[in-house]
Amino acid sequence: MPRDLDTLIASMEPELQPGVYVFASLPHDAVASGAGIVATFREREGLTVVMEESAAQAAGIAPLFRAAWITLTVHSDLNAVGLTAAFARALGEANISCNVLAAAYHDHIFVPVDDAARAMDALSALQRTAGKLSASPRP
After folding, report:
1. Which class in CATH covers the domain with range 5-135?
2. Contact, 110 vs 24, CB < 8 A?
3. What is the Cα–Cα distance from 136 to 36, expressed in whole angstroms?
4. How far apart are CA 136 and CA 53, in angstroms?
5. Which run of H or E residues covers position 122?
6. Could you report the per-residue pLDDT of 13-69, keeping only the tens digit for each?
7. What is the pLDDT of residues 103-119, one digit of tens each?
C-alpha cells in the first residue's frame, strides 16, 4: 500500500462512477438502509446520507447537493500524508468544489455534477504531472 505522495498521485487513476448522487440530511432516528445509499455520517444536526439521486427522489428526500462521484482507484494508506491536499488544490485551481470521503481502501471525491468532466481532466493532469516527477531521477 503506497504512502509516498508522488507514487500515490502518479497511480491514483480517477474513475468516474455512473449516475448522480446527492447529499441529504435525515433525522437522527431515521433508518438509513437500502438500495442507493453510498455512505452515512452521524452529525450533531442529523444523519447525513450520500445516495443515488433516483433513490432519494423515490423516498421523497430533499437533496442538499447534487454530485458526480469520482473514485481514486489507488489503494492508499489511511496514514498517507498529502494526497487529499494535492487533489483538493488541483480541483480548487480549476474552481471546482469537492467533498471527500476517505474509506478503508480508496478516496472518494464528490464534485458538482456539472463539473464532473472538468474534475476528471484536472485530476488526470495532476496524475500525469506526478508521474513525470516520480519518473525523473532524484539528486
Report:
1. alpha beta
2. no
3. 44
4. 44
5. helix 116-135
6. 999 999 999 999 998 887 766 778 999 999 999 999 999 999 999 989 999 999 999
7. 888 999 999 999 999 99
Phi-psi sector, 35: left (phi>0), alpha (psi -120 to 50), beta: beta
**What is the per-residue DSSP string for 31-89?**
---STTEEEEEEETTEEEEEEEHHHHHHHTPPPSEEEEEEEE-S---TT--SHHHHHHH
Only one residue has cell 447537493, namely 65
Task: Please give the grid coordinates belonging to residue 4.
Answer: 509516498
Q: 22 is written with which cell numbers?
A: 446527492
| 3-class SS of residue 109 | strand
**Cell numbers linked to 51:** 445516495
Residues facing 72 on adjacent strands: 14, 107
The span from the first CA to the last CA of the chain, in angstroms, equals 25
